[in-house]
Specification:
The chain is of the alpha+beta class. The chain has three helices and eight strands; from the N terminus they run ααββββαββββ. Strands 1-2-3-4-5-6-7-8 form an eight-stranded antiparallel β-sheet. A hairpin with a 2-residue loop joins β2 and β3. Keywords: Signal. This is Ribosome biogenesis protein. InterPro entries: PepSY-like. It comes from Bacteroides finegoldii.
Length: 167
Amino acid sequence: MWKFKFGLWAVVLITSVFSFSACGGDDDNDTFVPPANIEVALKQLYPGAQNIEWEVKGVYYVADCWVTGDELEVWFDVNANWVMTENELDNVNQLVPAVYTAFMDSDYNTWVVTDVYVLTYPLNPTTSVIQVKQGSQRYSLYFSQEGGLLHEKNISNGDDTNWPPTE
């Protein structure tokens, strides 16, 4: 009987430890509110933004929101300067024809497309990103709007964030 009680308590203790460890600090904070000047900057740039959720990525404040049916991530620096907008598309068919053709002509055209984005910036040219995978390999392919492959980023390590360019 004593062994049964000890075993039962051990199970309860281990379950409790795992339950509390699941509440780590890496979870998104759905109630995060950025400084007021960042919120004002978003409303000036995208007055119709709805369902806004904020987070911090690196040194940037990022608004995940919806604008006229598009899901956007709008990035600002600490001084409330807009640095990038990431627009997630449904599929590669929504890309400009030059990018679609360049991807279909690339060595990656048989890979599985997992995500498609268009990145716009205040100073740099618009970039299209096609994320692909084959087995355990994953890549982000960055294209100019004219269809040139700008660079490939290996994202097999799990970091598939499209970071703003550093000036």
